[in-house]
Fold each of these.
Amino acid sequence: MPSSVVLGAGGFIGSHLVKRLKREGFSVRGADLKRPEFGETVADDFMVGDLRDPAFVHSVLGDGADHVYQLAADMGGAGFIFTGDNDADVMHNSATINLNVADASRTVRIGRLFYSSSACIYPERNQLDPSTPVTAEASAYPAAPDSEYGWEKLFSERMYAAYSRNYGLTVRMARFHNIFGEEGTWTGGREKAPAAMCRKVAEASDGGSIEVWGDGLQTRSFLYIEECLEGVRRLMESDVTEPLNIGSEEMITINGLAEMVAELSGKSITIRNIPGPTGVRGRNSDNTLIRERLGWAPSESLKDGIERTYAWVARRVKESAETAVST
Ligand code: NAD
């Protein structure tokens, strides 16, 4: 049985990846600061600990594994990444994890390592026009990400590439573009736009209003978790060594996203645009390279994924309202 390790297995993408790898017949060891929030893990074993500690990284990797997926990071949505308040922690914590993992790969057998980078590495100058953002992989340099989160991702991409060059580590890297779906953070300050919109709409009454940060004309694309994992697995099994975008090309304004959620909910909702952290003005995935290299790219409509995610978030909102009433 092929073996795998998922670092960050208590998080959103990691916990879904564990399920996928189990379905595919891998043995899976998960590791994270915390166990998954929305259901028991299906990993064969799950180690709770801090990957900033090199000894913990060594104990998790043990004698090595065929596949290691490095998803652990100190991260969140715009309210966490773009305020500036968490910059030092984001850089220090995520860089330390990646330094530890890369260094362990010199002494432990790792068949291949997957690293989850981000669309946040792309230069801000190419994302000022919301209608024509540029995110072709080659446009990453000269580098000028708009957040420290993006700079750390770029640093770690380069570090894994250097370990590949100097120590023969086999690495696959993806730049994720706004992944969303069920069992993602939906409240508490680290949630991202799709889950936040779903929560706000689920909490609003029919005829009510929701707040949306910025003028709402900033654009993004959002990729449903299952297609993200399809891309991850295809990339991992490929011989592609350069970072590839894994994202959707269906660009939408943030107000458009809010309207889509409102429509799916069946409620009549007014949008109130208020000042708030927004990140770059426009961003979309450019899937030219992934199509060329893997002969595949995400194709599912945003609406389908949002429909499933709204149903899930609405259930969480209902449950927490019921708990609040009964206590
Ligand atoms: P997430 O926050 O749900 O998962 C990250 C996990 O890392 C969390 O469970 C957290 O507890 C764990 N972690 C953080 N610090 C740790 C530490 N010191 N030791 C052990 N575990 C630690 O995030 P996610 O959405 O699942 O993202 C997974 C990866 O994909 C991250 O590297 C993220 O930067 C990257 N990414 C995600 C998106 C997205 O839209 N979700 C976009 C671009 C990149």
Note: The pocket of nicotinamide-adenine-dinucleotide is lined by residues 8, 10-14, 32-34, 50-52, 71-75, 93, 97, 116, 118, 176, 178-179, 192 (CB under 6 Å).
Amino acid sequence: MRKIVAVPIGCGHYLPKRQVNNSEFERTIDTTNEWIISRTGIESRHFADPSENTSDLALKAARMALSDAKIAASELDALILATATPDQTFPSTATRVQHSLGMNKGFAFDIQAVCAGFIFALSNANALIKSGQVKKVMVIGAEIFSRILDWSDRSTCILFGDGAGALILEAAENNTKEIRRGILSTDLNSDGKYNDLLFVNGGVATTQTSGFVEMQGREVFKHAVSKLVSTAENSLKAANLSTKDVNWVVPHQANSRIISRTANIMGIDMNKVVMTVSNHGNTSAASIPIALSCSKQQNRFKSGDLLLMKAIGGGLAWGSVAMRW
Ligand code: UT7
């Protein structure tokens, strides 16, 4: 049966130049390098220059993805950008990137699902491709969380970093039963009753400020482990696959303990898990596409490898995507 599949054709990423080690926080708040590493796995993160906006980071990642895919921006039909830290309240950061890239047709829009944003964007891109509406889509996760951190709150400010990652998907026709490449299944979830576990204490309609991140870390941790396992199982089941088929897990990079505990419950060897949190911190919607692009640079994935991507963030919102590279 003829089937349209969304196939990855290129990826890219950008991390701001300024790399900040844990020792910098030791000078300003009551924390230690040892505490941060042992509780989170984070050793350093990148922070954007004051002159850089989220769209600047996204643009650099997008240009690298275009060059990797060997296509021009004018060939893109859509650009979907996941961010919780847009340049402006409106218009979308996606339209700014669309213009800067020289993408002169199609449409661009933002998606907001915080740390799960890239998974939500990828799922939407997949749906647009499968419905036949678009052929080539740029999916970006880009964040400058350093603009919404309370530098006096040691329980949150040490966790996050800035960056952007991009993945380009292309429609491919598959008329065999066995799908060799592309997105096989997606699973999206949210539950607004958990709003108070992880949120920003400001907003356009409430305080007319952008606010700062607040989190009940221990509670989010518990939800993260159970919900990431259940969404991963849902995606695999929907694709008639099991954990044994997984070549690589590319998880949201919030905390190395969440990543390893989740892998352990699923019976997946840590050698199959991509881990970038130590050098990037939690870059929210950008963490998975950055991890994809870094892995590609290191030639870690083979064509046809089964990748399981999963993420959770404020909302709570969580989800996963099973994709053959
Ligand atoms: O990306 C979106 C999803 N986000 C996440 O998945 C994050 C989930 N949560 C976590 O990763 C972890 O809960 C944290 C890393 C945020 C915190 O680790 P934890 O092991 O859950 O620590 P905790 O919040 O239970 O705090 C333990 C202790 C507390 O002190 P007391 O009350 O036991 O005296 C905190 O005040 O550690 C203290 N603490 C710190 N100590 C040194 C909290 N932050 C720090 C710090 N340095 N930076």
Note: The CA atoms of residues 197 and 267 lie 28 Å apart.
Amino acid sequence: MALGMYDIITKKKRKQELTSEEIKFFVDGVTAGTIPDYQTSALLMAILLNKMNERETYDLAMAMAYSGDMLDLSEINGVTVDKHSTGGVGDKTTLVVGPVVASAGAAFAKMSGRGLGHTGGTLDKLEAVPGFNINLSEKQFFELVKKNNIALTAQSGDLAPADKKLYALRDVTATIDDISLIASSIMSKKLASGAKVIVLDVKCGSGAFMKTEADAIKLAEAMIDIGRRGGRKMYALISDMNSPLGEYVGNRLEVYESVKTLLGQAPKDITESCMLLSALILKGAGLAGSIEEGLKLAESKIESGEALERFKTFITGQGGDISFLDDLEAYIGKTERVDVLSESEGYITSVNTEMIGMASLYLGGGRTNKEDDIDPYVGLKILKKPGDYVKKGEALATLYYTGSSDVNKARETVVSAYVTGESKPAVVKHFYGYIDESGYHEL
Ligand code: URA
């Protein structure tokens, strides 16, 4: 019998399992534009309500990956590695992890996206480096990975086009927040990007899709299952997004903090996050026998200065000007600064990360539409984090702003993002655990 969307929707409505052929028929039709949006949306909602099993989720990811270009990295010597963060505020780990693992011998070949809403994007951070080219041709991308062990480019227009269409529909039909749909969407792009080893940084907390550790583990496991079925080595770190990562949010400010991390001068949370992600990649690439060995190797690349040197090679390889490294304070020095003062006293129990990201957006550092321009100079320095004690009138954060920033709105948003209480919160965790071949390990 010929396949038809009505029957496929009916099956999922009745909680039945879809066959590989049915999923491929659906994705091919979405890609070709032959399935009307109302039928696509109906199926997405049926999936969200009645769920897909692991096999169906894998089939959906593969069909979306194969809806466009599949990058074949096999001509690159060495193990190709990639990382993916499920989105955060102040998450600049790629800028550090890439050079660390490249200097240790892994081939870091990554395609990245831009930031939208409260979350930042790696491409925007790299564009805050004068001259840096994020639009490499496939030939340039391959040459740079072969020469420097590291290159990072914008996702090509034809990377998982079915996902692009489905994501746009999910966004307006309240069907984003399903683990199978999120996992297959993210993994379709990772599978199409070609790397052999993929390390996921799955965030949980106020600034993330997943609000609890248990849900973050479920999402990580769903993505790991897809990647392993697709022949990739998969690892995941489950990390906290109940406060921004590191001290700085904003594009130039985050490049600044990345360099500080490469110099070994950054706060503990961002440093540890970069080291753990690097260790997982190095283990996956066979350059370290265990996570502990991976951590030692990663730390040695910071201490010896090799990771910073590789960062410079990476930047110049893509046309960037590294003279900003000679005067890092001048690089972030162009804006006005003002402190946001606490209106209450007590222990900080939580910082709403999404609101901090929105404050950066009001200053001009983010976009509400894909086409918006962003100001690379503006952002925030976070001065107080969960567990700290704050007095009324004491500074919570510093805003870096220009004439076009909405400073008042940003200030109000930061004040509302901070919650204080009388007692010190229990241990504030930056990481919950990681998943490797042998399962989940709490940290
Ligand atoms: N990021 C993606 O690429 N897809 C999702 O569904 C959610 C986050």
Note: The pocket of uracil is lined by residues 167, 176, 181-182, 185-186 (CB under 6 Å).
